[in-house]
From TrEMBL:
Key word Coiled coil present: yes
Protein name, entry field: Probable ATP-binding protein YheS
Family as reported in the entry's similarity comment: Belongs to the ABC transporter superfamily. ABCF family. YheS subfamily.
Keywords annotated in UniProt: ATP-binding, Coiled coil, Nucleotide-binding, Repeat
UniProt cross-references to PROSITE patterns, sorted A to Z: ABC_TRANSPORTER_1 (PS00211), ABC_TRANSPORTER_2 (PS50893)
Organism: Halopseudomonas bauzanensis
Origin superkingdom: Bacteria
Keyword Coiled coil included in the entry's annotation: yes
Length: 637
């Protein structure tokens, strides 16, 4: 188990944890929550052995294998599937040793290593790696592409696949859903539900946490508090605790005020001085309860548009795609003020293509797009974070689009996005992904859009900012199209769902829960279609003939398999005999003069047994080689 006792953890002058305690049992799945800078990533580093406690203790079993999702990629020339396989370091070590043994022509060592490879499930490793990549949205062709050919978000998917590929007893995942779309998240949920080890997960996706974890570890006030249940249960339980804390705080404040008035009134009177001193000491001993600070640092809204058009957009019989390659065809849509639409669809179906086309950054292949006279688009996409001026501050970014506004008004607006004081004047260069996303949203909110086109706006945003964005979108008066993997955001801010699939855009009449089932059926149909295509491509063989051929093959293989099995049994018996001899030779009394004859006899048996084991291993290897060669010949025929 993971056991943290009286732990103090400090990074530089900042104390992250103080006298913290936590116990996690094997197989438990827990979400790790806390504000930015609370110490979540440092706790991960502590569990990986990269940090040591400043006080207290953090212990976990010495033989536990730990896997974690890396945040960087070093070798850009590796093929994607090879990079994922690199996550299984033991597999790679066995493969290196096999290559050495083959080069040095060491048959005995080869037999041992192949047995170890089979025990490690190494023969299916390539298939498992490709399955992971497919689940995370990679095509078969992308599995063979260089890591350096992928964008930053897809590289993070490769890091996630590599972490999942590693056999582990403890899996540490830091924001694994940040760069995933909804169908990849649903696949990851299923994978993590079946994971047998201990899971510690940092995430700001409440639906994902509810689906995967059964405990929440909350980092707050330099303590670790364990809550039972998923995120929704954590919110309810914590709200109740904070309510009780607030009531206790208010009651204590009233007691303190009463005692202070008594002290001030009677301290100078000799007859009452002793009672006053007693109350003063009680006041000093009283544990100071803090008020429940639950207010979010974020409080903003989208400024109301000056004018509206109806409709805002009208797309007629359009073909959408890239460089002449059609992705969506016969698209018809009309957006009126107040429309609130969530876009669903499997990975690669064309959701971002639709958003980019409506935003004007991707030209139509065919069809017609009409825009309203007063259309004002607010477009958020991940590439916009990279387009921010790294040398400019949030204040300068906003001043560039609002040069006539007073600085204090700009500062007040940025404060709603938690850019206060000097932070509003610092260059964006060293900002985190979450801070850049907040700034991009601030620039959109300032410009008074009447149509929001939002493509994954919650990437990098923490729980508090996601909540503030949800409230702002609920109060937004204009129209909105939203692509997001955050199901809570879709559920709370949209009135209608559209589905992008099979090259078409259609209205989706069901809810998000039904979409999860639809997506599972869609995947199954895609897999079945692939299997049907493969079977159609293969020549058809009469079933009766197939059974006869299979029987003939088994008959030809049987003698070789029987010989290999017999040699394996003999080898096991010889190894058992060798173990008994070595146990006897370990007796120290055997080396006295009185037992010299017995020692000589055992040493002779040891030499004979070692020679027999070597001979049997060579015969076993020859038998297996012959068996595999015949199997290959039969498969080709």
């Amino acid at each position: 188990m993971i056991k943290i006792e009286s732990l103090t953890l400090q990074r530089g002058p900042l104390r992250l944890l103080e006298n913290a305690n936590l116990t996690l049992h094997p197989g438990q799945k827990a979400g790790l929550l806390g504000t930015n800078g609370a110490g979540k990533s440092s706790l991960f580093a502590l569990l990986r052995g990269e940090l040591t406690p400043d006080a207290g203790d953090c212990s976990l079993p010495a033989d536990w294998r730990i896997s974690h999702m890396r945040q960087e990629i070093e070798n850009l020339d590796r093929l994607a599937v090879d990079y994922v396989l690199d996550g299984d370091q033991r597999l790679r070590a066995i493969q290196r040793q096999l290559a050495e043994a083959e080069q040095q022509q060491q048959p005995t060592r080869l037999g041992t290593l192949y047995a170890e490879l089979e025990a490690h499930d190494g023969f299916s490793a390539d298939s498992r790696a490709r399955t992971l990549l497919a689940g995370l949205g990679f095509s078969s062709a992308q599995c063979e592409a260089r890591v350096g050919d992928f964008s930053g978000g897809w590289r993070m998917r490769l890091n996630l696949a590599q972490a999942l590929m590693c056999p582990s007893d403890l899996l540490l995942l830091d924001e694994p859903t940040n760069h995933l779309d909804l169908d990849a998240i649903l696949w990851l949920e299923d994978w993590l539900k079946s994971y047998q080890g201990t899971l510690l997960l940092i995430s700001h996706d409440r639906d994902f946490l509810d689906a995967v974890v059964e405990h929440i570890v909350h980092v707050e006030s330099r303590k670790l508090t364990l809550y039972r249940g998923g995120y929704s249960q954590f919110e309810r339980t914590r709200a109740e605790r904070l309510s009780q804390q607030q009531a206790a705080f208010e009651k204590q404040q009233a007691q303190r005020e009463h005692m202070q008035k008594y002290i001030a009134r009677f301290r100078a009177q000799a007859t009452k001085a002793r009672q006053a001193q007693s109350r003063l000491k009680a006041l000093e001993r009283m544990e100071l309860l803090g008020p429940a600070h639950v207010d979010s640092p974020f409080n903003f809204s989208f400024r109301e548009a000056d004018s509206q058009s109806s409709p805002l957009l009208d797309l007629h019989d359009a073909t959408l795609g890239y460089a002449g390659t059609a992705i969506l065809q016969h698209v018809k849509l009309q957006l009126a003020p107040g429309a609130r639409i969530g876009i669903l669809g499997p990975n690669g179906a064309g959701k971002s293509t639709l958003i980019k086309t409506l935003a004007g950054s991707l030209p139509l292949i065919a069809g017609e797009l009409k825009t309203g006279e007063h259309l004002a688009i607010g477009y958020f996409a991940q590439h916009q974070l990279d387009s921010l001026d790294p040398e400019a501050s949030p204040l300068l970014h906003l001043a560039r689009i609002a040069p006539q506004q007073r600085e204090q008004e700009l500062r007040n607006f940025l404060g709603g996005f938690d850019f206060h004081g000097s932070r509003a004047e610092e260059p964006v260069l060293h900002f985190s992904g979450g801070e850049k996303a907040r700034l991009a949203l601030a620039l959109i909110a300032w410009q008074k859009p009447n149509l929001l086109l939002l493509d994954e706006p919650t990437n990098h945003l923490d729980m508090e900012m996601r909540h503030a964005l949800t409230v702002a979108l609920q109060n937004f008066e204009g129209a909105m199209l939203l692509v997001s993997h955050d199901r809570a955001l879709i559920r709370d801010t949209t009135d209608e769902l559209w589905l992008v699939a099979d090259g078409r855009l259609t209205t989706y009449a069901e809810d998000l829960d039904s979409y999860t089932r639809w997506l599972a059926q869609f995947r199954q149909q895609q897999a079945q279609a692939g299997a049907d295509n493969a079977s159609q491509a293969a020549p058809k063989v009469d079933a009766k003939v197939q059974r006869r051929l299979a029987a003939e093959q088994r008959q030809r293989l049987a003698p070789l398999k029987k010989a290999a099995d017999k040699l394996e049994q003999q080898l096991e018996a010889a190894q058992q005999q060798m173990q008994e001899i070595e146990t006897a030779l370990a007796d120290t009394e055997l080396y006295s003069d009185a037992h010299r004859g017995r020692l000589k006899e055992l040493l002779a048996k040891q030499a004979d047994c070692r020679q027999r084991i070597d001979d049997l291993e060579l015969q076993w290897l020859d038998a297996h080689e012959a068996l595999e060669q015949l199997q290959a010949e039969l498969a080709e025929s």
